[in-house]
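Practice problem 4.
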């Protein structure tokens, strides 16, 4: 009986840790989607990503971390409060081997018209077959000011 109770505790803790670390859609504290209407879609052409620097390192838990450092530039005439992007990592044959979605400006001041700002995105699950080229950035949501 004690073994069964211990197993239940381990399963509950594992499931809780999974949703906490993965930020699943049903997880408490998950961010609501950003607007992606006609105005945001039209303004997306004003947002540029570049100046990439890619690094991989192993942390103390023996996990390989991939960092994508870059810059986001607002070439339009409005301030941008937040941007959500879909990222696609490819292998040497240009086949997508990993997809993820991230927000670039959450918690930072709005990106003013004409401003460029540095960002860092870190990933702990990019496959080893990645071609070491910056991922493809596709804007999927944006909050304008």
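Answer key:
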């Amino acid at each position: 009986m004690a073994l069964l109770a211990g197993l239940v505790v381990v399963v509950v803790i594992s499931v809780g840790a999974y949703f906490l670390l993965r930020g699943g859609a049903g997880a408490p504290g998950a961010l609501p989607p950003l607007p992606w209407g006609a105005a945001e879609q039209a303004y997306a052409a004003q947002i540029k990503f570049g100046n990439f620097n890619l690094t991989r390192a192993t942390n103390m838990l023996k996990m390989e971390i991939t960092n994508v450092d870059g810059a986001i530039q607002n070439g339009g005439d409005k301030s941008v409060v937040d941007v959500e992007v879909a990222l696609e990592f490819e292998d040497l044959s240009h086949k997508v081997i990993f997809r993820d979605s991230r927000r670039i400006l959450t918690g930072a001041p709005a990106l003013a018209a004409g401003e460029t700002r540095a960002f860092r995105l870190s990933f702990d699950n990019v496959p080893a077959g990645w071609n070491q080229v910056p991922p493809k950035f596709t804007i999927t949501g944006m909050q304008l000011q």
